[in-house]
Amino acid sequence: MNPVYIEARDLPEAFWKCCREVLKVGRVYTIDKGSFEGTRRLEFDYITLHVTNPGMRPLAPDVPKGIPSPTNMQKIEDYWQAYLVNPTKAENELYTYGEYLYPQIPIVIERYRRDGANCNQLTMTVGDTNSMNQPDPPCLRMIDTRISNGKLHFIVYFRSWDLWAGFPQNLGGIQLLKEWMADSIGVDDGELIASSKGLHLYEYCWEFAKQYTGIDR
Length: 217
Hints:
The chain is an alpha/beta fold. Helices cover 32% and strands 25% of the residues.
């Protein structure tokens, strides 16, 4: 195992640094089971990412012309409203994060209001025992919370994480959720720590990441 630690100022810098680092140290393997079976992906063994100012705008990365943009602010706003805080799911969806998070969010807000900032029990989980039998279980599994120095911080964990097509939109939406919860609690917005044993680039994105970072692995 080769754990990697990355510190970034904001979300666009976090995306750029993760793309650069996975090209340098990521492990190449062929997918035997799961999404994109039979293709290759480039993956960190384990990564911890610390973003000190995740609320700094823009939330979406600015990629050079000619490279498909992974997301934009409108998509990020749509994502957090439709997929993180909405309990409903479409007929073709196995799950949404919102069906798990929706009932937990008001509990976290109320507990912090009632019990104060030193409460250390408020972790929101995604998935249940039935998730183990799904063909594609939830990737996001946990949003832990802490209030420190008058700010709400998030610590999130993804079991598997698509760096190009998922990371920018996921973290942008999670950041909007954090800002909204902080305002509801009555504290300032804080930092963001994210970790994963499966942050990866699918093979079709390798060339995009090389052009974006200037790294030619």
